[in-house]
Design brief:
With 269 residues, the chain is of the alpha+beta class. It has 12 helices and 7 strands. The strands form 2 sheets. Strands 6-5-4-3-7 form a 5-stranded antiparallel beta sheet. Strands 1-2 form a two-stranded parallel sheet.
């Protein structure tokens, strides 16, 4: 049975990241058939399950996933229009067969679970990864055809994300739970809508972040989106709640200025 909403889903021990990602997409596509897309993933996983039956080596499993998902099915990383919002909606990724590291990683995780492959999402800075075979297994890059990453590849990625002096540390390879992956997906969309000045869509994304307990920053961001949408009372409430939660926030002056602006505009209306 499909969960009624995102917050309800993540409270369930059986929650899957693909269902959560489809619920996020339903905000943008209200008529989206979540159960139908889950069935599509069931169907896509069947040939993979047959091919890896009895195969326990994670490197062999990685090759099978790469050959099937990226070779035969034609999934790929969207390098041309990376920040297209469609790359962050799982239904579009399944239909168009291209996406960003996180959404392609979610496809791998969904198929791997259905095929009986041990797979985990990895919250690597700046570039979501998938690990196969547990701590002693291998890391694959969902964006570049599911290729297996060496320790040198990981070092290159961490320096690209955090600077040339950065080194890969255990926390960079931490396993992501369903909630943290969904928050990452929502934060990607929040950034896209900020750049697009799509304030109403940004507010809705921040609603979901607040629902998931993503932290005070979600309140602040929703407040700024609300201010730009002329929802002044909502803006004052969220920005005030942010400062209450973060009394020593580095952006306190900017937030206080926005609260004042919201109050002035409210009084003019």
């Amino acid at each position: 049975m499909v969960a009624a909403d995102l917050a309800d889903l993540v409270r369930q021990s059986s929650a899957t990241v693909e269902e959560g990602a489809l619920l996020i997409a339903k905000d943008a596509y209200p008529s989206l058939d979540v159960a139908g897309y889950l069935r599509t993933l069931d169907e896509l996983a069947m040939p993979l399950a047959r091919r890896i039956a009895g195969v326990d080596d994670p490197y062999a499993q990685a090759r099978a996933i790469a050959d099937y998902l990226f070779g035969e099915l034609g999934f790929k990383g969207d390098q041309e229009t990376y920040y297209d919002a469609r790359n962050s909606y799982l239904n579009e990724v399944i239909d168009r067969r291209k996406g960003i590291p996180l959404t392609l990683g979610i496809v791998i995780l969904a198929l791997a679970r259905r095929a009986g492959i041990a797979a985990d999402g990895i919250q690597f800075p700046g570039h979501f990864l998938v690990r196969l075979g547990g701590p002693s297994g291998c890391y694959v890059d969902p964006f570049l055809g599911g290729r297996v990453l060496s320790s040198v590849d990981l070092e290159i990625l961490i320096k690209r994300a955090l600077g040339r002096d950065a080194e890969v540390k255990p926390q960079h390879l931490a396993v992501a739970d369903t909630r943290s992956m969904l928050i990452r997906a929502l934060n990607n969309l929040r950034g896209i809508f900020e750049k697009q000045k799509a304030h109403a869509r940004g507010m809705l994304v921040c609603d979901r972040l607040v629902d998931l307990g993503a932290g005070p920053d979600a309140l602040r961001d929703r407040g700024f989106f609300a201010l730009r949408e002329r929802a002044y009372e909502a803006a004052r409430a969220d920005l005030g709640a942010y400062l209450k939660a973060m009394p020593k926030a580095g952006d306190r002056k900017a937030v206080e200025k926005a609260i004042l602006q919201a109050g002035e505009q409210k009084n003019l209306n």
